[in-house]
Write a structure and sequence with these properties.
4-stranded antiparallel β-sheet, 45% helix, 13 helices, 8 strands, single chain, alpha+beta, 4-stranded mixed β-sheet
């Protein structure tokens, strides 16, 4: 994919720039500056989602028939690049990048009509109920049960690492509907259209960075309609793998990573080094930054091929490879960020990190987010299936 000034796309870029420079409110811009995770501050990012929806730009990757803008791959990449240049909060991925595309592929007509409009508009937020205390990367070991009773299922058990479940009004989840045969053969995929069913309890978990981003969800004799099932009963393993393909391989991460590197480079140019001059002049820093820039460029090329429809996207190894590359780069960039900030990253500034806080931060924006970003990014190589599991999956694709 070649995007050049004479390719006829500059008029589109100008339209995007004009909108992104003027539409976000001060609170949304602040949320972008204080984002330290894949998941931006909830209230502000959902407000931004709804603003983008009014312009028809909330789901650049969706087909037009479901509300996408009908952009070319070049237009989508320009939008993603300009979006990240401004440090705007990333829209939450669970609906737009995961369950939405899954429903387009495997949902019933009734499920598409009922759920896709709310995902597109930002009225609904879906939390993901996959992991359990004894079933994370070994997802087939899950035990949260669903027993058929008339037109309903009765749920018992728990889920963990359900991101922003305390904000969610909907949930997609895997449940065990049979203990017969192989573990994978007794799993079913369910959509819950509310989070306040009698018997449901949500408990936030405080993470390493001090934020209640993750939750536990408990189910005690919770009655939910069977009409929320996607696919056949006991066929949830195949459905879940289809969704994981979107979770691990969806979207372009390189514009966000490049933005983070740009921030680090600019900060290093103003940070005194121990040897006189500035950190940006230090040979060791230049080596580390150069290596990361080269690898982000490689990922960028990889993603451009992918969104252009290159055949490699259909390779079974692609989602795992994309997940490994993007998450390990995220961790390395977060480490370089703390190297640049140094001791200024150590104070606990959770109060100042809240959007709208009256607490004056110590230091600049980078000092405020460096340590929470570093701590939060430790999880990137674990969630969505550990990178060790992803390497095993890639190896399996090479077996004759």
């Amino acid at each position: 994919m070649d995007i050049t000034p004479d390719s006829g796309l500059e008029e589109f870029r100008s339209e995007v720039v004009e909108f992104l420079d003027t539409a976000p409110t001060p609170e949304i811009l602040e949320a972008g500056r204080k984002t330290t995770s894949v998941f931006a501050p909830f209230e502000q990012v959902m407000a931004w989602h709804r603003i983008l929806h009014t312009r028809g730009w909330s789901a650049p990757d969706w087909p037009e028939e479901y509300g996408g803008p009908g952009w070319s791959v070049e237009q989508r990449y320009i939008f993603a690049t300009e979006y990240q240049k401004r440090g705007l909060p990333p829209l939450l991925p669970n609906g737009l990048k995961m369950v939405g595309p899954l429903l387009m592929e495997l949902g019933s007509p009734e499920q598409k009509d009922r759920y896709l409009p709310g995902i597109l508009s930002g009225e609904d937020y879906w939390t993901q109920g996959y992991s359990e205390p004894a079933a994370g990367s070994d997802l087939a070991s899950l035990s949260c049960s669903a027993v058929a009773d008339g037109d309903d299922y009765i749920l018992n058990g728990s889920k963990i690492w359900t991101t922003y479940a305390h904000h969610a009004n909907r949930m997609f989840m895997l449940v065990r509907t049979s203990n017969e045969g192989p573990k994978q053969a007794g799993i079913t995929f369910l959509l819950l259209d509310r989070m306040d069913y009698p018997g449901m309890e949500v408990r936030p978990i405080i993470g390493l960075d001090g934020a209640p981003e993750q939750c536990e969800v408990f189910f005690t004799d919770v009655r939910v309609p069977q009409s929320g099932r996607v696919g056949a009963e006991n066929d949830g393993w195949a459905v879940s793998k289809q969704l994981l393909k979107h979770e691990r391989g969806g979207g372009a991460q390189s514009p966000m990573l490049r933005h983070r590197l740009d921030v680090v480079r600019e900060a290093a140019a103003q940070t005194p080094s121990a040897f006189g001059g500035f950190l940006a002049d230090d040979a060791a820093f230049q080596r580390d930054l150069g290596e990361l820039e080269a690898e982000v460029s490689s990922l960028e090329h990889f993603e451009k091929l992918a969104i252009s429809g290159h055949p490699m996207v259909k390779d079974r190894a692609y989602p795992s490879l994309n997940k490994i590359l993007s998450t390990e780069l995220t961790q390395r960039i977060s480490t370089l960020m703390t190297d640049v900030v140094g001791l200024d990253a150590l104070p606990d500034q959770r109060d100042a990190l809240s959007v709208g806080s009256d607490t004056e931060p110590l230091g600049d924006d980078l000092s405020l987010i460096a340590m929470p970003y570093y701590l939060n990014s430790r999880a990137t190589t674990i969630y969505a299936g550990t990178n060790e599991v992803q390497r095993d999956l890639i190896a399996r694709t090479q077996r004759p």
